[in-house]
Amino acid sequence: MSIKSIAAKIFARKIYNQTLNWASKPVESQLKVFESLIKDAKETEFGKDHHFDAINTIEDFQKNVPVRDYEDLKSYIEKVKIGEENILWKGKPIYFAKTSGTTSGAKYIPLTKESMPSHINAARNAILHYINETGNTDFVDGKMIFLQGSPILTEKYGIKFGRLSGIAAHFVPKYLQRNRMPSWETNCIEDWDTKVNAIVGETIKENMSVISGIPSWVQMYFERLQEKSGGNKIGEIFKNFNLFIYGGVNYEPYRAKFEQMIGRKVDSIELFPASEGFFAYQDSQKEKGMLLLLNSGIFYEFIKAEDFFAENPKRLTIGEVELGVNYALIISTNAGLWGYNIGDTVQFTSLFPHRVIVSGRIKHYISAFGEHVIANEVENAMKEATAETNIVINEFTVAPQITPTTGLPYHEWFVEFENEPESIEAFAEAIDSAMRKQNIYYDDLITGNVLQKVVVTKVSKNGFQEYMKSQGKLGGQNKIPRLSNNRDIADNLK
Q1: pTM attached to this predicted model
Q2: 104 pLDDT more than 50
């Protein structure tokens, strides 16, 4: 056993004990975070606007600070973006993470000197919990690859801008620098197709032991490795590969494919990171769900998904949640997000400690590949495409096709036309172009050859009505969802 392996086990036990301390006192841990957040933000513009000086309890906070989304905070964020200080949080953020938006295009999420360490430490601690539970340290002396965005950042008004994964690349600890792949130069390649080929060239003869990334991107990397090696299994190319770390999308649709490509099962660790915060990680190979991080500068509230769109839904705290209930996740953070609806829904699989699974989005969406496409985006794209081509449609819905018989995956648009376009392909191109302008993640996936462009499938006259009738939902207030993250509707329409 190497010195690094011995040190990793000692450090893992220390972190486990620290985690046990705060996780065993969930209400106390969250109250401590809450009080710290209110105290530190009293003198900010947001704090003054919302009377933080008069907030003594969580009930006071909920009365003064409504649930918000990005659009509701945007006026404050715009001030921060031009260098104004003490707006949402004390001083200025050190980074803005650029992420996909809703009605306004890209979102810019602040990262502060107080919030940034939790993003880095959480990923590290997930691995340390794995070591502590399994005793497996074989991988620590091998090479580790983290498939991520470019670390090249821009700077305005003393604040650096970039993708979260690119920002995180600047925080790889020194003890991992020798093990980390790919090289900095390769990581800086913007074009994903070119980047993957370069990564394959750099890693194919290395002793890779840990591979991390969004499953769809990792699958593409594996496919290129197999092409380069003449069809060998990934487990044959990397004989010591035994740990896969992932987040961003549900791994289950990919699991069978991955095990086929690898040629054997490997352990995996699930993460729940976002630009808004690092919320949870899988702390056990034996228990379902991810440990919710209750001491990392994030105060959590939970609204039952079924009540979310009511006029004044009840906002629950960590001591009030129940198992198996679908909750919209609301956060307030030491990066200056207050009563912020991140859009994700979670369910608790355990209450002591508090573990969650990501159950979906509070609204309909597609994120089979991490693209986070929402209804507003597909409706705008359809509006643009029909305006350009003078086409009239009766109804449409969108679903991902993850496992096509040939070619890359794609988004399949099921459209019932009133008058058909002369060229379905040209109509699909117009939709695709409109989508790429709205959603940077979708554009990345198309540019990087992870997805092919939109495929439009014609639905016969009254096809949607017949579907709704078959489901007992014809008429009334029932509507066809504009998009789904599965193919339940799509396969029925086909």
Answers
A1: 0.78
A2: no
